[in-house]
């Protein structure tokens, strides 16, 4: 199994942007938890079948795909339903992420997980790379990107680990808010670090 770098960060921190730089410049394989989460509830999957059995046909769009906004509404204020959904999907997502990591061909892999700390998935990775951005910038970026209010973004931030919590778990940090500290030089430096680590004996066993 290749060295696995867990990439995490709060909303609008730039996780995908950073991961894409590793892929575009150094051909590093990426496993994205958000994409996996979509795959396990795609039409025809066991995940979607169980969701429909639990919530009913009204949880589907006309094309029989999952209506995500309707599902969010069902679990938003209902902790029991949220726990049921997490209990169903988290093992499926974890299994699929591990299967994809087993197929990696690059010297190391990036596992991009927004809620890595919150869902206690540190055991899946060898190192944790935190994309760090102050909350004020997260709020500003998310309001512009998603056309939502500051209150809505604050509610999302409140459900995630704090900046301090995330940084306390970090082995490496990329700052994505400083104009005099662009991303590619930071990515390049970490790439060299990860390459060296991937060549250590315990990673090649």
In words, what does this structure look like?
The chain is of the alpha/beta class. The chain has 2 domains: 1-28 and 108-199, Rossmann fold (3-Layer(aba) Sandwich), CATH 3.40.50.300; 34-105. It has 10 helices and 5 strands, in the order βαβααααββαααβαα. The chain has helices at residues 15-26, 33-39, 46-55, 68-76, 79-101, 135-146, 150-158, 163-168, 183-198, 201-204, and strands at residues 3-8, 29-32, 108-112, 127-132, 172-175. It has a 5-stranded parallel beta sheet with strand order 2-3-1-4-5, sandwiched between helices. Helix 1 (15-26) crosses helix 9 (183-198) and helix 6 crosses helix 7. The protein is globular and about 50 Å long. One of its GO terms (biological process) is coenzyme A biosynthetic process. Catalyzes the phosphorylation of the 3'-hydroxyl group of dephosphocoenzyme A to form coenzyme A. One of its GO terms (cellular component) is cytoplasm.
Key structural traits:
205 residues, alpha/beta, Rossmann fold, 2 domains, five-stranded parallel beta sheet, 10 helices, ATP binding, nucleotide-binding
Question: Can you lay out the helices and strands and say which pair or pack?
Answer:
Blueprint: E1 3-8, H1 15-26, E2 29-32, H2 33-39, H3 46-55, H4 68-76, H5 79-101, E3 108-112, E4 127-132, H6 135-146, H7 150-158, H8 163-168, E5 172-175, H9 183-198, H10 201-204
Parallel strand pairs: 1-3, 1-4, 2-3, 4-5
Helix pairs in contact: 1-9, 6-7
Pathway: Cofactor biosynthesis; coenzyme A biosynthesis; CoA from (R)-pantothenate: step 5/5
EC number: 2.7.1.24
InterPro entries: Depp_CoAkinase, P-loop_NTPase
